[in-house]
Amino acid sequence: MTELTSPQPPVPRGRHAPPLEVRLEVQKQRLFDAAAVVFSESGYADASAEAISRQAGMSKATFYEHFANKEECLVALFEYASAVVLAVLVEAARHAGGDYRDRHRAGLRAILEIAEANPSMAQAILVETMGAGPRVAELRDRALNTVAQRMYEETLHGAERCGGPAFASADEAFAIVGATFELVSRQLRTGRPERLLDLEPLVARLILGLLNAPPE
Q: Which of 6, 27, 108, 189 is 20 to 30 Å from 115 by CA-CA measure?
């Protein structure tokens, strides 16, 4: 399974210290890990810069070097996780072989695996963003549209390269993305079904059903 972030080793100090941009990137990764835990366990409303800093083992001053407030932190976390998930989806689909069904199943499984391997991150970006205000809601909608557009384009490219059907429009891809995100969100909130990967057969049927639907 793919992990969005991995434990960051202590940054050497003194003359062995890495360049500033490297130190800042390590700090940001630690803050992302910490923010995912705090948002998922406490909820966005009760999360704070202090709690995130404490979870990361950093000072509040370090937090504010990276983010103006917890909303900025959630926005950055969402953008980071969305970019990683999209890259993983595309990579998995492109290496799945020529059959369009294998390509879509591989992309779907990659999304579910990354969510299952990173439950705090998934909870933070799929559940806690729902009540985080209009700016985060707008970002969420934009991210869903970006994933759907890329998925639509990938089906067109896949059909050109290897044959098989493609989505008729970006709206069809958005229907799949929206359904998948909501099903994953419900599983994280309620534990139904038992595992995220249990959603794979259902979503795969939705994808293949749309792809094979006769044109209107």
A: 27
